[in-house]
Predict the 3D structure of the following.
Amino acid sequence: MPSLSHRFARAALIVTCTTLLGVGLVAARREPLAAMRSLRKMFPAWHLDAVLLFGVVGVLGLSFLDLLQRPRQTTASPPLAAAKPELLDALTGLPSRAAFHDAISAMLAAGLPGGLLVMDVDGLRTVPHGDSSSIGEVLLQEFAGSLASLAPVTSHLARLRGDEFGVLVPGIDAATLQSEAGLLLRGLSAPFALAGRRFELPVSIGAAMLPDHGNSFEGAIRAAELALQQAKAAGGGAYMFEPALASTVEARSELRAEFRAALAAGEVVPYYQPIVDLADGSVAGFEVLARWHHPARGVLAPDNFIPLAEEQRLCAELSLSLLRQVIEDARNWPQAWTFAFNASPTQLRELVEFVRDPTQVPANMLDPKRIELELTENALIKDMELARDVVHAMHRGGVKVVLDDFGTGYANFLHLRDIPFDRIKIDKTFIKDMLNDSRTEACVRAMLALGASLGVSVTAEGVETEAAAARLRDMGCNFAQGYLFSPPVPAAAVPQFARG
Ligand code: C2E
Ligand code: CA
Ligand code: CA
């Protein structure tokens, strides 16, 4: 923390200078001659000039220095950081981890409660490799600037490491901390424009209350980081620490350590969910959904391991492994069946490189016409230029592209106009509520009309009842997928879907 005497001396100096200047100016305005006379009695003429000059220069100089030394207007630790440059982060100008350590320790030592937020900038991992050093750094600076303007004025900020930032808010209660975290999430999700491109940097936030969740710097950071990991595993947002988290996160870190080996050992396999042509009820193809046959934990759904694959940049490897297995599984299946693969935002760049490099294409490759790539709106919107690259590269390779989870993301008409998708997949949340809610049904109708006018087919996912399938058929939906027809099944159960 900045030393109290240092701060006091500065304040006293500013007050003295301001008073002298004020006295001089007021006296000069009111009764110039009388004032001069009385002041001259106290000071010789040159002394008076010097006092006034000193006052003006002093006030301006100190204010200017104060501005320069304040890294961001909200941090409560700039004087310390200014005194010790190593306590400032060179890239962003925010206080460093060491400065944050001091702030938390001082608050706890003073017996004061407070709230801690630790946040991670998720989007930076998707910044293309080639420009990551320059664009990534500028984005971090932009992010730090936004954080400083959005954080509560009483807070201490810091760049903790890489793309991780901390916010310490003394004296805040848990409910207010959570609403502050929500405000930060919303404020920081505004896109950044840089070098003619648009970047969205979604953040995940872990929250902890001090001293309840940690009564030392290490304890507090650990609690907030556990909550952060939970937020990330849930796909982003903010999460408040709770004691049970430790075991959940521990289990996940065990899985993380095992995942790479599991992929190599063939424990991660494709499951197949049929996509049905609503016109005649035939199976047109399958969505390929990954499952991990874990030796101890049983069959794990993708929510348990896709985030781990993303963290370790293993999504491309996962897709390639699934593709190889699908090629093998499908050798004796009907040639008309198509296979739709899912891709994470983190693997888009690798996908472009993959289709451009013929040496990477597995032997006995399926006819590309039988392959579809499902991309979510949010994956694409982060970097429109990359999105267009991916779609064009796929089209050149003969692969179709599906806009997945349609209706739940941020896509707008501009994106629909500019990116030539081959198919739209309406998200299951709409299909679930459609029959009981006329507004939801109106949205589904609008999405179907949009597909028809764009000339692309539409698939509805999450179809669980005959009634929903019949309504969709009547509304002109082309394809459907859902538990009504079949859950995702292992390869051995697929031949039953072949006709006659
Ligand atoms: P998604 O692409 O939205 O996949 C559809 C999800 O809905 C699947 O969940 C599927 O099992 C489930 N589902 C199917 N029919 C119904 C139904 O009638 N009702 C309901 N409530 N749900 C239904 P799953 O298999 O757990 O996959 C979750 C997500 O994981 C997928 O969402 C996809 O985004 C991701 N994913 C799956 N496999 C891969 C993969 O190989 N790579 C990547 N990057 N992501 C994958
Ligand atoms: Ca999908
Ligand atoms: Ca979906």
